[in-house]
Amino acid sequence: MQLDEAQDSTAPYRRLRKHRRFDLIFPVHLSFPSGVTVRELDAISRNVSIGGLLLAASDSLPLHTQVNLIMEVRGPRLRSTVRLQSEGEVVRVERLKSAEFAIAIECKRPIDEIENDLLAKG
Known about the structure:
This protein has 122 residues and is mainly beta. The chain has one helix and seven strands.
């Protein structure tokens, strides 16, 4: 029988996760509807899974906001920046410091790589 983490008295605040999370810190660009316009927000990933990501940002977003995101992955083993994209929904927002927020986004579909030739045309 598997112990449900929500009932584990040693970890009362941990939740059972569907997907493994990775502590990855990369720039993330969000775009989302705001009234009749589209707003944009730059953030930094704190952890990422195939089902979503946690961001740190200088501004907050309302719960259930639908977002498009592009994450730029860089590293010494990569020849160039890899751009990943997805769509998701804001499922949690917490104030971290007076000028920073944690924003949890649940992805509607797995995060995909953007083809480089599409970026050159856009």
